[in-house]
Amino acid sequence: MFKNTASQKLTVLAFADAGHAALSAGEKVTGDAANITMKVEQDDDGVRTASNDTNPTETEDGQYTFDLTQAESNGDKLTFYPESSTAGVQVVALPSNVIYPRPANFTSLGIEADGDLTRVDALSGHTAQSGDTYAIANGDHGLVSIQDDIDTLVSRVTGNVALASVLGERNDAAAAGDPTATDTLMQYVKQLINIMVGSDGIPSFPTEAAPANNVSLAEVLRAIHADVSSGTATAAKQDEILEDLVDIKGTGFVKDTNSLVDLSASSATNIQTEGTVIESD
Questions:
Q1: Going by fewer Cβ within 10 Å, which terminus of the chain is more open, N or C?
Q2: Average pLDDT for residues 189-197, to the nearest whole number?
Q3: Global pTM exceeds 0.85
């Protein structure tokens, strides 16, 4: 009998004991199917359940067969309890009331005459494979090649993760101040946009400084703004201001040097225009 397998049968034998009214002890009992029932217990769990087949089918010479369901055979140890309600009749399972089922499809396994464990020779309509299968599995598109492709993909993904940590995310906040070892490229881009056109501007504008090495553009702009917004200039600044008043290329405007006053005085003086700026042709 196979474990957990449907459409199996259990044969039982009915025979008379000393209390039978008509038969001698040991004689086989026929015509008693309607009075025979059976219970099934699985793996010694103490639960004895009536068979799904209420009464067996009589075969011959006191033998009867029960039809077992798949669930009734689903145990490593099956104990059967057949009985008859007829006085003087004993019923036993054949070959035993206790059966240890074999695994399902157990008999499908085997060793062929040539020692092959695959039973490929017994397959109906089967064509034995040649060395092509091995060649395909280990060729340019085989298992080894697939593993190499996977390793390459993993390497690229790992590299992209590292690159992503440098580039940053779109929701990264703008950087502030000097570059650091942790700010992302996205943070620096946002910082530049804020400096040029962003509403946040420069978070902390530096103090003014004259152009020199290690001086930022913002410091120089602050210095120019301070000179212009104050409305004063010394004689020493006169040549510098004249140099700054150059034609703005592409605008069509030129300076009018007649609008300048003499800045030769050593003390500060206000610059007032006496001419007009004209558009060049």
A1: C
A2: 87
A3: no
